[in-house]
Design a protein that fits this description.
- There is one protein chain.
- The protein has a 3-stranded antiparallel β-sheet with strand order 1-2-3, with no helix packed on it.
- The protein is of the alpha+beta class.
- It contains 3 helices and 3 strands, in the order αβααββ.
- It has one domain.
Length: 88
């Protein structure tokens, strides 16, 4: 099982896409970053407090975007724009 599954009981979403580029949302604010940090703190309180788990969680970033482009690694590297996702 993956670390995400062990922590939260959900499996990580798997995809054949590779992030190519993204455009940062213009009104990205410190308030959003603070909310994400609060979520990280809440998750940390539910997992085993060991250095591997803590360092893994601290590396996680969620960045709000206005546009995300990806490359389909199973379809000859075809570039696509993800229209239903706004975070990387």
């Amino acid at each position: 099982t993956t670390t995400i599954y062990e922590w939260l009981g959900v499996e990580r979403f798997k995809t054949n896409l590779k992030l190519e580029t993204f455009e940062l949302l213009e009104d990205y604010s410190e308030d959003f970053k603070k909310e994400i940090d609060d979520i990280k703190t809440a998750v940390l309180s539910t997992i085993d407090d060991n250095s591997k788990n803590v360092s893994s969680l601290k590396r996680i970033q969620i960045i709000p975007c206005s546009k995300i482009s990806a490359k389909d690694v199973e379809q000859d590297g075809q570039s696509i724009v993800l229209e239903d996702y706004y975070f990387v």
